[in-house]
């Protein structure tokens, strides 16, 4: 059994349910501010989530669903502008306390730190969005490495962001456990043979997680036990001791 030295967390959908009531609503606010009557419903946004990265997601939408605009505007520029506006609205929502951490996240991070296990972030999301979430709900100083957004050439499902984080930590995959919520995230981590624990959410619960070690509904708390959906993990909520058994 290898020694557990670091926990690496995805952000959106894993640390907090940021998508449905966070990013999605902020995208719609940005469209309205820019004078477009587009509205991404909860279900439609689920389809758009297959495109990682907020700017890339807008560009994909413009290209696929608003193609007459192609002759009137530079779609790349428009996507970049709308993404900037959306990020302001998203950060306002974080500031207003509208986005909560998922069960067990803070508890597990505190337990890891007490045992000298290092913490890192590996996300597709833009750096300022990640920083604002950490500032409001956790503590930026807890994280030795924050791998985010455009720090790497290719976003998840490419493994680039995990390469980057492992390099910065100067660790090999066998000493780390990754936390993800999506098929894209697990695909990114599994290409480096990282051991992955998945906490599903409404958008991801039917995805293929065959490359993950364990799939649970959430990390759980003493008063809110988890449900194991696949794989094996002991106890009623995810603990550092149980994670050590996974390596
Ligand atoms: C989630 C994403 C992101 C967010 C929006 O990635 O796909 O694109 O929806 O983020 P992960 P930005 O779960 O890997 O963090 O607008 O900040 O890009
Ligand atoms: Mg995610």
Explain what this protein looks like in three dimensions:
The relative contact order is 0.17. The chain starts with 5 loop residues before the first strand and ends with a helix. It is built from 9 helices and 7 strands; from the N terminus they run βαααααβαβαβαβββα. α8 links the parallel β4 and β5. The chain has helices at 19-33, 42-48, 54-65, 75-95, 105-114, 127-137, 160-169, 183-190, 240-244; strands at residues 6-9, 118-122, 143-147, 176-180, 195-199, 214-216, 228-230. By secondary structure, the chain is of the alpha/beta class. It folds into 2 domains: 6-17 and 100-244, HAD superfamily/HAD-like (Rossmann fold, 3-Layer(aba) Sandwich), CATH 3.40.50; 19-95, DNA polymerase, domain 1 (Orthogonal Bundle). Magnesium ion binds at residues 10, 12-14, 181-182, 185.
Please tally the β strands and state the result. 7
**Spatial extent as radius of gyration:** 18 Å
CATH architecture of the largest domain: 3-Layer(aba) Sandwich
Shape: globular
CATH topology of the largest domain: Rossmann fold
Our count of domains comes out at 2
Mean pLDDT score: 97
State the low-pLDDT regions, or none: none
Helices and strands, in N-to-C order?
EHHHHHEHEHEHEEEH
Q: From the structure provided, what is the oligomeric state, counting identical versus distinct chains? A: single chain
Classified by CATH, the class of the largest domain is Alpha Beta
How widely separated are the two ends? 6 Å
Give the helix level as a range of percent. Answer: 40-55%
């Amino acid at each position: 059994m290898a020694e557990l030295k670091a926990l690496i967390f995805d952000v959106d959908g894993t640390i907090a349910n940021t998508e449905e009531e966070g990013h999605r609503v902020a995208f719609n606010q940005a469209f309205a501010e820019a004078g477009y009557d587009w509205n991404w419903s909860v279900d439609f946004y689920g389809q758009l989530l297959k495109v990682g990265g907020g700017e890339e997601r807008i560009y994909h939408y413009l290209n696929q669903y608003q193609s007459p605009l192609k002759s009137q505007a530079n779609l790349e520029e428009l996507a970049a502008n709308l993404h900037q506006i959306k990020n302001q609205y998203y950060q306002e929502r974080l500031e207003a306390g509208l986005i909560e951490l998922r069960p067990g996240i803070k508890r597990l991070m505190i337990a890891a730190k007490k045992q000298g296990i290092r913490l890192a972030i590996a996300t597709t999301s833009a750096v300022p969005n990640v920083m604002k979430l950490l500032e409001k709900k956790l503590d930026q100083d807890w994280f030795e490495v924050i791998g985010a957004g455009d720090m790497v050439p290719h976003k998840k499902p490419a493994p680039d962001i995990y390469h980057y984080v492992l390099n910065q930590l100067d660790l090999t995959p066998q000493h780390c456990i990754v936390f993800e919520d999506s098929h894209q995230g697990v695909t990114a981590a599994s290409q480096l043979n990282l051991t992955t624990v998945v906490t599903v959410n409404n958008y991801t619960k039917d995805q293929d997680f065959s490359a993950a070690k364990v799939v649970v509904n959430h990390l759980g708390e003493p008063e809110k036990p988890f449900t194991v959906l696949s794989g094996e993990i002991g106890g009623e909520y995810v603990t550092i001791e149980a994670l050590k058994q996974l390596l």
